[in-house]
């Protein structure tokens, strides 16, 4: 039987949360054979999201290395296979996934994110009876799952959907003002999404709930995706300065340009950005201009003692500027699937619905404390629960992290939620 202490005790990183368990299973179970288990991943290794694609690949490689060092899955090593989804989209992503299944007979596909897919990944997984875990961070995953849970039984989203960014952001701003850490000059907020599903869903969630948290929306302007020309938007912001500017566009290079252009004529507005500032490119391009920026992510490697071995191993293997906050996602995903496959008696293979169902059922029951926090599958949508806006228990939800760039030469500081925070919010240098 699975020992909870073994599940939670780390030796070589959070993935080692399962290392003791897998090692015990490998010592007591008769290995089926020593044939490598193919693990597929459809990632944007080129194109606008290549920076993330590389980190997703790194996370898989490190997890595979640790799992194999622990003895593999019932004695079988895992072997990573990557297909480049390039500019992404439904056709490219579905074709990439199908090639992984047809060429390598991968029983599992663990993706980072891919844009513009309309969650076709779930249909590929269903048609081939393979496990699929992804980090698209989309409420459309949950909505599609609800249309036919029996068909989409093997698809999992490894983090909470983007909807939760909306109330989470508003709650953060309200708390910051209530604690007198930020003196808001007014109740106005400006919302700046870009023309993609992820950004717009977040922006709409903020807009629709703003009044509940005591804010009024003074500007809601959608910009092209991608974009680095912020002049027209900045002109409108300067005409009617809000207390906070909430940019839900997420490409790091574009967000860095926003800050450079903003500081040419700054206003006394707090700036919140979406996910992109977690990547090294944001600091590399923006330099000192990024100091003071607040951003958030519903998934990312926590700066705690539990994940310290992972962070150290990741940077030692992939370099001091590598973004473990991104690689941690697929890293946890592969460890979770490996544990579930071992519990189920093996990974199975494509079109083996009986065995894939066993693995899926193990994943549904699992509460996994990884380097990103706690994953527990929401049965209503088969994605992670979000703490604290969706669930109040931090042991059963993944923390919605708020971080601030306080010195562009170092990693950003985690300032909320309070149970995980390592540092305090500081007033941005442009606010006078």
Automatic annotation (TrEMBL):
Keywords: Amino-acid transport, Signal, Transport. It holds the Pfam family Peripla_BP_6. InterPro entries: BCAA_transport, Leu-bd, Peripla_BP_I, TAT_signal. Residues 36-382 form the Leucine-binding protein domain. It comes from the Bacteria. The keyword Signal applies. One of its GO terms (biological process) is amino acid transport. Belongs to the leucine-binding protein family. This is Amino acid ABC transporter substrate-binding protein.
